[in-house]
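Contributing: when you submit paired examples, paste them exactly as shown. First protein:
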Amino acid sequence: MHTALTTIAAVGPYGHGGPPFFLFPAFFLLVILATAVVFGALRRGGWRARSDARAVLADRFARGDIDADEYRSRLAELSRK
C-alpha cells in the first residue's frame, strides 16, 4: 500500500506516460496553419476572379461589343494567367 501511495504522489493520479509534450504545441500550430491557408485561399479568390472575367467577356461578346477575333484573343490571354 505504501508503494502505491508513493507512486501516485510521484506521478500524479493519471499514471505513467501519455503523449509527449511537443505534440500539443505541434497540433495547435498545424491547426492554425491550416486555418490560415484555407482563409487565405478563400480571401484571395483567384479562381473566382478568372471565372468572373470570362463571364464578363462572354457577355460582351453576346451583346456584340466585341467581335469573335477579339473574344478569342482575350479568352486566350485569360487562360494564360
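Second protein:
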Amino acid sequence: MTTTAATDAEYSGAHPRFIEALRELGLEQVAPRIRRFPEATRTAAEAAAAIGCELSQICKSLIFAADSVPVLVLMDGASRVDVELVRKELGADKVTRARADAVRETTGYAIGGVPPFGHRTKTRVLADRSLLEHDVVWAAAGTPYTVFPMAPRDLVAHAGGTLVDVREHAG
C-alpha cells in the first residue's frame, strides 16, 4: 500500500519535506526507523540522552555563511566546528554561523531539526570525518522531536557531502 508524505509524516512525526526527500533518494526504508520523542531533541546532548547513544553518534547539521553563501557542515555531536578550518577548506574570506532566519530560509527547517538532506535549497556540504568513527549515527528528521539512524558513509553520500577535517581540536 502506498501512502502519502503527509500520512508518513503523521505516522513518524517527521517533517513532510524530509519524508519526501527520503522517497526522492530511494530511502523509503528509513521512514519506519524514524523515532519521535515527547521532549525536544534540539541539542546533540538532548538527542543522545533520548536515544541512549553516545554524544558522538549524533550528527549535527549546522549551517554557516561562507562569504555570505550558506554551507552545511555535518559534525559529530561531541565536537565543535572550527570555523577557521571551514574557511580554509572553502577558500572563503569569512565564515560565520548562520542566523536562525537564514537557516530556515536555506533549509526549510528550524534550528534543532535540520536534517542532513532534504533542504529547500541546494548547498555545499562538508562532513567531518569524525562521523565515520561509528557504524550508525543519528540525525534530525526535520523537527526538534524526530531523529533517524543511518550508516555515516551513506548519510554523507546522500547529503552530497565532501569528507573533511573541520573539527575543533583542544589546543
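If you have annotations for the second protein, write them as plain sentences, like these:
The chain has a mean pLDDT of 90.
The two ends are 55 Å apart (CA to CA).
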